[in-house]
């Protein structure tokens, strides 16, 4: 059997919530799933269901309360100092790139920074930076600009290009296309599908866009109050959802899409 790239077993994350921080919030409540190499798992669920918390736990940006996370068979929660080399093999792309981009660095320096940090930049800085722009459909003449002289969509493309520049094996995309227009979204869909096909990149894709989920993922998990209520092939879940919660979620999302167009 092919070993999954990501395996999550009974993952839990509690927060202290409430006005006086005296109430336990089970943001992730016993979640288990696997993602195979080169495949994308979509994560659907209403706001507050725990999707971002789950995505952050996978990269150890926050520490889970309980459970196990395996990256290529290694329990990353049991690692201490030796987790560092794994960091560059896993990347997260957030909805809001603004916080991730240093406003005092030019686009060129921002794009080349991860490669420099991981000692993967070999000469040819200008050509490499131009290629990193091209992969997210941005013109090279923006390389000298600072982030505040770019549109929100352009900044998001820079954040995406930075994340993939070091060829991570696993990417969590948390609402990564929410700030892009339809053309931008289609380009990122194509880019993710190319990474899956050419580099066997594995993805967890968190998105409210059913179109994005349909076109990029192989399987879908549906999250409700911290638990996975349904998981299965993308076409099965989107076309014939079995769980009443998924049925309600999909029909409300479809209605929203219809009223927007
Ligand atoms: N740092 C925190 N402290 C306390 N509670 C938190 C914290 N982060 C998240 N939560 C709570 O955990 C629950 C899950 O939040 P999370 O952001 O994971 O949901 P989500 O499904 O990603 O939502 P959205 O689609 O709006 O991004 C929510 O009830 C949220 O209020």
UniProtKB/TrEMBL annotation:
One of its GO terms (biological process) is peptide transport. GO terms for molecular function: ATP binding; ATP hydrolysis activity. The keyword Nucleotide-binding applies. The keyword Nucleotide-binding applies. Keywords: ATP-binding, Nucleotide-binding, Transport. InterPro entries: AAA+_ATPase, ABC_transp_ATP-bind, ABC_transporter-like_ATP-bd, ABC_transporter-like_CS, Oligopep_ABC_C, P-loop_NTPase. It comes from the Bacteria. Residues 6-250 form the ABC transporter domain. Belongs to the ABC transporter superfamily. This is Peptide ABC transporter ATP-binding protein. It comes from Desulfosarcina ovata subsp. ovata.
């Amino acid at each position: 059997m092919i070993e999954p790239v990501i395996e999550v077993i009974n993952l839990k994350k509690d927060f202290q919530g409430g006005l006086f921080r005296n109430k336990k919030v089970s943001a992730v409540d016993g979640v288990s799933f696997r993602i195979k190499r080169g495949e994308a798992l979509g994560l659907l669920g209403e706001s507050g269901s725990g999707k971002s918390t789950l995505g952050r736990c996978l990269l150890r940006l926050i520490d889970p309360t309980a459970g196990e996370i395996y990256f290529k068979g290694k329990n990353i929660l049991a690692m201490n100092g030796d987790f560092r080399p794994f960091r560059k093999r896993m990347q997260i792309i957030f909805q809001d790139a603004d916080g991730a981009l240093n406003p005092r660095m030019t686009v060129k320096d921002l794009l080349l920074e991860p490669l420099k940090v991981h000692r993967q930049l070999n000469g040819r800085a200008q050509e490499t930076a131009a290629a990193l722009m091209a992969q997210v459909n941005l013109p090279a003449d923006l390389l000298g600009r600072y982030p505040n002289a770019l549109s929100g969509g352009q900044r998001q493309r820079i954040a995406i290009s930075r994340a993939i520049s070091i060829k991570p094996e696993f990417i969590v995309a948390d609402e990564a296309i929410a700030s892009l227009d339809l053309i931008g979204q289609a380009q990122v869909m194509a880019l993710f599908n190319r990474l899956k096909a050419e580099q066997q990149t594995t993805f967890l894709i968190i998105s409210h866009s059913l179109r994005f989920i349909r076109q990029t993922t192989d399987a879908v998990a549906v999250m409700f109050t911290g638990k996975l209520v349904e998981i299965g092939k993308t076409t099965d879940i989107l076309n014939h959802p079995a769980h009443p919660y998924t049925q309600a979620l999909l029909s409300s999302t479809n209605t929203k899409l219809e009223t927007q167009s």
